[in-house]
């Protein structure tokens, strides 16, 4: 089994430069493994220039170019398993689609405070909020059209850590038939996870760091009081619960795809910017 690490520092889909810095830092936080080659998706670094909303998506051209380059890099590497290092949530589109082409009986466990099923008609143009809806074939058409394999089905999704929904998100999930449970009081049980896993030969994990409670883990969007996003709240999960969830999944299934997304080390990024302004480090 060939496993690759796909470094995909997409920041434009989330409209925040720290996604780029976070992805590049995250590659060094993962446990070292020389048996897992690092493949880098070509993403231009932030240039500070304002982007435009086109066809309902902010920086549409750059978002689509990133997806296409990720597909190219994956197809050249021909992996059996992919660990994706993001970047925002959009980074799951290309690897999950590719793996769906390899493995037919496959389910997605979406560990996230948010459903990621927005469309271009919901007034929030950042594509990272549209990724799971697009994998289901109902999100932004320009995203779904980039997929090379069949769309995922509504009963192939399990949300873990999901928090309160906007009305349009609730309507979307009900309309397409995705079952879900709001987990503001208690998370889905280990037994529910095992029951879901038992239906599939292979599992994909999407782990959005904002599922973590920002009061206990601070490198997440909701730990930054200057940001408002689309009005959604942060996650409720602590690190020990996350470890339990991941151990249940990985001990009871064949995980062939694992995305880590939305790592936002704001303090480290500020320190980097400050030091970059000191001539001693740059001349």
UniProtKB/TrEMBL annotation:
GO CC terms for this protein? cytosol; nucleus
Q: Name one GO molecular function term.
A: manganese ion binding
Under the heading Gene3D superfamilies, the entry gives: Ureohydrolase domain (3.40.800.10)
Q: Which domain of life is it from?
A: Eukaryota
Cite the entry's keywords alphabetically.
Hydrolase, Manganese, Metal-binding
A family per Pfam: Arginase
Residues crossing the lipid bilayer are none
Which family does the UniProt entry place this protein in?
Belongs to the arginase family.
- The protein depicted here goes by the name Arginase family protein
Q: List the lineage, top down.
A: Eukaryota, Fungi, Fungi incertae sedis, Chytridiomycota, Chytridiomycota incertae sedis
């Amino acid at each position: 089994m060939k496993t690759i690490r796909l470094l995909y520092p997409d920041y434009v889909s989330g409209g925040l430069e720290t996604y780029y810095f976070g992805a590049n830092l995250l590659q060094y936080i993962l446990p070292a493994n020389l048996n897992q080659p690092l493949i880098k998706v070509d993403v231009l670094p932030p240039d500070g220039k304002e982007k435009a909303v086109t066809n309902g998506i902010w920086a549409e051209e750059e978002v689509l170019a990133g997806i296409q380059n990720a597909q190219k890099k994956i197809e050249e590497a021909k992996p059996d398993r992919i660990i994706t290092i993001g970047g925002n949530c959009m980074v799951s589109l290309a690897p999950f689609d590719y793996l769906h082409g390899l493995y037919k009986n496959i389910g997605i466990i979406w560990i996230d405070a948010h459903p990621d099923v927005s469309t271009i008609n919901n007034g929030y143009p950042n594509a990272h909020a549209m990724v799971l809806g697009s994998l289901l074939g109902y999100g932004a058409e320009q995203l779904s059209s980039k997929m090379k394999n069949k769309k995922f089905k509504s009963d192939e999704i399990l949300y873990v850590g999901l928090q309160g929904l906007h009305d349009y998100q609730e309507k979307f999930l009900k309309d397409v038939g995705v079952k879900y449970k709001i987990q503001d009081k208690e998370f889905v049980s280990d037994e529910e996870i095992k029951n879901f896993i038992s239906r599939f030969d292979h599992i994909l994990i999407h782990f959005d760091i904002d599922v973590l409670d920002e009061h206990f883990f601070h490198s997440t969007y909701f730990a930054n009081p200057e940001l408002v996003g689309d009005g959604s709240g942060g996650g409720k999960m602590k690190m020990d619960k996350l470890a339990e969830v991941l151990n249940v999944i990985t001990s009871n299934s064949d995980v062939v795809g694992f995305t880590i997304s939305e790592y936002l080390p704001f303090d480290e990024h500020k320190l980097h910017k400050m030091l970059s302004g000191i001539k001693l480090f740059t001349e």
